Structures
1.
Amino acid sequence: MNEKLNQIAIDGFFLPRQSSSFAHEIDAGWNFVTVLSIVFFVLVVGAMFTFMWKYRRTPANPQATSTLAHHFGLEAVWTVIPTALCGVLFIMGWKGYLAAAVAPSDAIEIQVTAQKWAWSFAYPNGVISNELRVPKDKSVKLILSSKDVIHSVYLPEFRVKQDAVPGTYTTMWFRATEIVNTVLQCTEYCGQSHSNMLSNVFVMELDRWNAWLEKAAAADTSMKPEQLGEQLYTRFACLTCHSTDGSPRVGPTFKGLFGKMEACNTGAVKVDEAYLRESILNPTAKVVTGFQPVMPPFQGQLKDREIDALIAYIKTLK
Ligand code: HEC
Ligand SMILES: [Cu+2]
């Protein structure tokens, strides 16, 4: 699944492209802290070496330095200046945090669901995709949740990051400012295939984005079941755990599955439509021997037509 992902363009020396309305402000803060750190490093370490050299013990000056008392003026200066600088940093950080925490009320809402090890994006018209497509120059609010463990959405070019937590919703927003293809990464270690938990991100012109949404909605209803099933296999990340070539992954392969006798914890079962349906909606009802019960239940996430499509697809994998 990874070969389709676009290479992230690294343009800057330190930081990735600036592709959202947040980028300039966040980079300004980052640069400020970096410059400040360099200046103080040079000042402090410079003073240290200067004094070491100046007051070193020599034959001409064999005495130890006398004990020093307080110097109020000096201490006041090195307290007041850093405190003021921290104040400036706090104000920059606070303003940036507020701007990033509260999405504009006209933002387009996209539901993001994380699961081991893929993302799915539900758009306002009901289309579900494994790619994040957003219009340029529009505020987009992502509403995140997770089906299993904590994951985290990271969009470096947009300078935004937010955890997706099971059992609750978190939100994040951004406004993309240029047409760009990039990659969304999971940045919370979530198990074996964590590093493959990537999704393509496309920023599009608004009219092209609308056209894409309409086309995607129409495609789902006009497609043949096995074709739709093949797409759902990618879209709902079945492929991270099930292969179609006979090799076992986290779960059993789909190749040659239909019609065979499967050994489960409840005894042997013949794989038919009813078994497949049950395995998709409620995977722990019968756990295949030799595998861990780690498949997330798809109850409530797949429409009947989509379950039929997945079954039709699995049937084609002889
Ligand atoms: C996190 C990994 C994971 C994901 C994602 C996943 N599965 Fe599974 N699946 C498993 C495991 C592990 C088993 C075997 C254990 C069990 O039966 O619960 C399994 C079992 C199955 C079975 C029974 C297979 C057999 O050999 O009898 C079917 C059918 C199935 N999954 C379909 C799907 C479909 C369809 C999807 C996507 C909509 C999906 N799975 C997503 C891990 C996963
Ligand atoms: Cu993850």
Note: Residues 114, 151, 186, 188, 190, 194, 197 surround copper (II) ion (ligand 2) (CB under 6 Å).
2.
Amino acid sequence: MNDSDADRRRSRAAALPLRGDRLRGRTALVAGGGGGPDPDFLGTGAATALLFAAQGATVGVMDVSAERAEWTCALIGRQGGRALPLVADVTSEEEVERAARSLVAEAGRLDVLVNNTGITGGAVDAPDTREWDRVVEVNLRGTMLTCRAALPHLRASGGGSIVNVSSAAAVRAFGSGAYGASKAGVIALTADLAYAWGRFGIRVNCLVPGHLHTPIGDRGGDEARETRRKANLLQVEGCAWDIAWAALFLAGDESGWITAATLPVDAGSTAATVLGMLPLM
Ligand SMILES: NC(=O)c1ccc[n+]([C@@H]2O[C@H](COP(=O)([O-])OP(=O)(O)OC[C@H]3O[C@@H](n4cnc5c(N)ncnc54)[C@H](O)[C@@H]3O)[C@@H](O)[C@H]2O)c1
């Protein structure tokens, strides 16, 4: 990373004041909220956890990696927020339920769940289907399991908000195999849960991020970043904070009459056709 990259990211993050009280008194569980090692270059889970804590929430940072969960919690702690690391693999019903229970035991309630966990891969023409199965298991079944674990607690709190994280690969051909298929399932699951749980005051919505610059997706170097930047209608590269702010909107009271929605966070890239974009690039 060179200085101008860091400056650009800092200026985006700093452009909006993180601190506020939009989630004051609330408890949020962020699945896949681990991060590290660079506090100036966060993934979407860590940025969401940090923003929610800065907005007054107690945040359960759940991750399969204890190190990554603790890293995010330490960062939140340094900024004066309250966070609890929770180690769980989203594909384990038992681990996820235990994590949700221990957060509620510590914080007294649960109001928000963000399903940020996601892994890529699962080509149809791979030598066997094990990777396909794992990607679907983490992205789709894992999202279902965290919802399943959280729903009784959200209901006990008198309602709440679930924010699922899908991908542009769910709605546009991308050659992503099981990734896109599982993320399309997340959109369908979102509507289905919104249907079933709306009468209990539980809203369920879904973010559909476009190509972002995050540590896990940081491939292809400067040239790839420049292409990503130009391939959307704003000609601005997306980063983790763009997802965090959208998640905050869907988590908080400002979106109180929005449920079963899929919100693209992609600077318009999925609204345009490839041929339409070419003259702009
Ligand atoms: N980065 C992008 O360009 C992009 C684009 C579209 C959608 N998304 C989606 O956004 C989300 C976050 O992406 P990111 O690249 O910012 O990642 P991130 O930095 O937020 O990290 C995701 C976290 O999930 C954790 N995790 C992985 N498998 C797990 C499991 N089985 N159980 C529990 N935790 C697990 C990882 O340890 C990691 O800490 C994902 O759902 C991804 O599919 C990302």
Note: Residues 165 and 193 are 14 Å apart (CA to CA).
